[in-house]
Design goal:
Blueprint (H helix, E strand, L loop, with lengths): L1 H17 L5 E6 L9 H14 L2 E11 L3 H4 L2 H7 L3 E7 L3 H7 L5 H14 L2 E8 L6 H13 L4 E6 L7 H7 L8 H17 L4 E3 L2 E3 L6 H7 L12 E4 L2 E5 L3 H11 L3 E6 L2 H12 L6 E2 H8 L9 H9 L3 E4 L2 E4 L7 H8 L2 H4 L2
């Protein structure tokens, strides 16, 4: 643990040498199971971060946690260490679904962890996965109604996707289950949008819903294409137009820090068009959309080079996209087919980096 602590601190100091001068707006402990860290280590890292950068007023400090009793038992001490927001990976509220998803906790344990989190943190979020095989709108409505009743200020609601190379992909190939078809999944997306908006947690991003002021400021940094430093094994960063990736395997990351005092495996300058493409692909996920003039000034490209105006006008005419001055976005009706829209709205000249 001493080696782990000193390596994280060294990685952090390297980033501060390259990207300091502005106070931190947010910190996010994520990836793997950060809530298994000793609270003393959390406190040490936060103290060093404040020393290196300084904290903005009302800084958001989030910890990602699995809803197990072991991790929940540390919430009080983690809150005392300085964490003020927690994001719980509940994923479902019934045991059959949790088993299907391969989760180790059961529903009772997850709900107990949520109660503990709400006791110790002012801001709590949790995630659920829907559009599961054969799931009906009625079933999802009942589950979502129960989720909203817990009263958290933020919910992350993701549709189940079958990624290549995963156990789910293998199960589908073997015929063990059939993914929910696109049309029923779209119906569940519409149910989600309607129920969360009615409950005062409208979608601010395609899969994220929050009470006004409760949006994840850290994730908004990603979606607004702001700069962020990533430390620790496998962490990605964006700073000053450069992309950084840390060594993924902990042993390789530790060895790199011993050799060079940082864990970076890849550090490259992003091209202008690549930055613009990333910013648009991320920004169009947001209900607020993308300010093309502001982005154009940032990357040095004319606003009309950043979007396919002809396709934008077409999608706006049929209610799937919108434009307000220099700002463009995707409507709630367009969000269920966001990936398809992105493929047509982002000019080929930006994608071919």
């Amino acid at each position: 643990m001493d080696l782990w602590r000193e390596s994280l601190l060294a990685d952090m100091r390297h980033e501060a040498e390259l990207a300091s001068g502005e106070p931190l707006e947010s910190i996010f402990f994520g990836g793997g199971t950060p809530s298994l860290m000793p609270p003393e280590l959390v406190g040490t890292l936060l103290a060093e971060a404040e020393h290196l950068w300084g904290f903005a007023p009302n800084i958001e400090i989030t910890l990602e946690a699995n809803p197990s009793s072991v991790e929940a038992s540390k919430f009080a001490d983690i809150a005392l260490a300085g964490v003020n927001r927690v994001s719980l990976g509940l994923q479902a509220l019934d045991n059959d679904t949790l088993r299907f998803l391969g989760r180790l906790h059961d529903a009772e344990e997850g709900i107990a962890a949520l109660a503990t989190a709400q006791e110790h943190f002012n801001r709590v979020s949790f995630d659920l996965i829907y559009a599961r095989p054969a799931q009906t709108a009625r079933e999802w409505s009942k589950e979502l109604e129960r989720a909203l009743a817990f009263g958290t200020g933020h919910l992350s609601l993701y549709q189940l996707t079958i990624e290549p190379g995963t156990r789910f992909a293998t199960d589908v190939r073997r015929g063990e289950f059939d993914p929910l078809a696109d049309d029923p999944a779209a119906d569940l997306f519409a149910v989600t949008a309607e129920m969360t908006a009615k409950a005062g947690l409208p979608a601010y991003e395609v899969s994220n819903h929050a009470k006004p002021g409760q949006e994840s400021r850290h994730n908004l940094t990603y979606w607004r294409y702001g700069d962020y430093c990533g430390i620790g094994p496998g962490a990605h960063g964006r700073r000053g137009g450069r992309a950084t990736i840390r060594h993924k395997k902990p042993e390789n990351w530790l060895a790199a820090i011993e050799a060079r005092s940082h864990g970076i495996n890849e550090d490259r300058q992003l091209g202008t068009r690549e930055q613009a493409s990333e910013a648009i692909l991320m920004g169009l996920r947001l209900a607020e959309g993308v300010d093309l003039d502001r982005l154009g000034q940032r990357v040095g490209l004319a606003p009309d080079f950043l979007i396919n105006a002809k396709r934008l006008n077409f999608f706006a005419d049929i209610g799937l996209a919108w434009q307000n001055g220099d700002t463009v976005g995707v409507t709630p009706e367009g969000m269920p087919v966001l990936n398809s829209l992105l493929a047509e709205l982002v000019p080929a000249a930006l994608v071919e980096v």
